[in-house]
Write a structure and sequence with these properties.
The chain is α/β, with parallel strands linked by helices. It contains ten helices and seven strands. It has a single domain (42-314), classed as Rossmann fold (3-Layer(aba) Sandwich), CATH 3.40.50. It is globular, with a radius of gyration of 23 Å.
């Protein structure tokens, strides 16, 4: 009662209370509108048609890390959209098998180029450039990536692992993109999809180099996207939570963790649609990832999410180390 009485008699207090209430209401309304915008994007708003980038018109899609998981699914769905496909990955036998499968199933043309991106071999890139120069590239999917073998403190991580992450996740993306850009800018059309990670949105302890490489990808995508927009080349950073793949080591899908097929379908159907992403030239199109992306940026603080990641990766590391110990013990028994 005293508070109500004070509000009734003290106009300054009443005014201040009203202003604070209005500010709070505006804050909540802004967040609600933002969340509704995410839902509109992922469930209603259509993406740019892939015909804009040459689907069904003889154009090619270049896919790195193409032999498994998300890369392999991009190959299938882009072939289904009537792109010819250039597959680039490490294992020639896998590439040849996939190329034959795509030709038989979709009646499109394919090329393959086997290279180990961890080596950063200049001769490999030179030969890849020669192959790219023989085709008309409409789409580039920068999918190849590598991660830490298990969550590991930075000070204890092997140098070869750190070098591999930088070489594959950063250098390879830069180099392959530079190979396709001259013809894309000349033709004034092209689509570059850079497969990102939530680890680049919120720093992930014990995966420090991988997390930093994905943060680099997000920033670089925005910068290059702004540079290339006037030339008709579309750059999108695709922010991704977990997907069921060999790299993620997750075998069963869930609400937050889809199989590659529905995930890739969401990406290709929502070109130019931000979904849950807030950064320019970014997209988080898969519905549960979009909601999670919005929550990361609007619920709790960055420090909270970094500490959450620390706790999560600490637990994963403990389990991974126990598994290594069991495997070492089992191996010792057989010797």
């Amino acid at each position: 009662m005293d508070l109500i009485t004070n509000l009734q008699t003290d106009k300054a207090l009443l005014t201040a209370t009203a202003i604070l209430g209005l500010v709070g209401l505006m804050f909540v309304a802004t967040k609600a509108v933002g969340f509704l915008g995410v839902l509109f994007d992922v469930f209603v708003k259509p993406g740019v048609s892939l015909t804009t980038f040459g689907a069904g018109k003889g154009a090619w899609a270049v896919i790195t890390g193409a032999s498994d998981g998300i890369g392999k699914e991009f190959a299938h769905q882009l072939a289904q959209k009537r792109f010819n496909i250039l597959l680039v990955s490490r294992t020639a036998s896998k590439l040849d098998k996939l190329a034959q499968e795509l030709q038989q199933k979709y009646s499109i043309k394919t090329k393959t180029y086997a290279m180990d991106f961890t080596k950063g071999d200049a001769a490999d890139y030179k030969r890849l450039a020669a192959t790219i120069d023989t085709i008309k590239v409409g789409v580039l999917v920068n999918n190849v990536a590598t991660n830490h073998e298990i969550p590991t403190p930075f000070a204890e991580e092997e140098e070869r692992v750190l070098d591999g992450i930088v070489e594959v996740n950063i250098h390879a993306t830069l180099k392959v993109t530079r190979l396709v850009l001259p013809q894309m800018t000349t033709n004034r059309t092209g689509l570059i999809l850079n497969l990102g990670s939530f680890a680049g949105t919120v720093a992930t302890p014990y995966l420090s180099a991988y997390s930093a490489s994905k943060a680099f990808l997000a920033t670089w995508s925005q910068a290059v996207g702004a540079e290339l927009a006037p030339s008709g080349v579309v750059v999108e950073h695709i922010n991704t939570y977990f997907v069921v793949t060999a790299m993620s080591k997750i075998r069963k899908p869930s609400f937050l963790i889809p199989l590659p097929k529905p995930y890739v379908a969401s990406v290709l159907s929502k070109i130019g649609v931000q979904g849950g992403a807030s950064i320019p030239y970014g997209s988080t199109p898969y519905f549960s990832h979009a909601v999670a992306n919005w929550a990361l940026e609007n619920v709790f603080t960055t420090r909270f999410w970094v500490n959450y990641n620390l706790s999560l990766q600490t637990d994963i590391r403990k389990r991974a180390l126990r598994k290594r110990e069991r495997e070492a013990a089992a191996k010792a028994k057989t010797q």
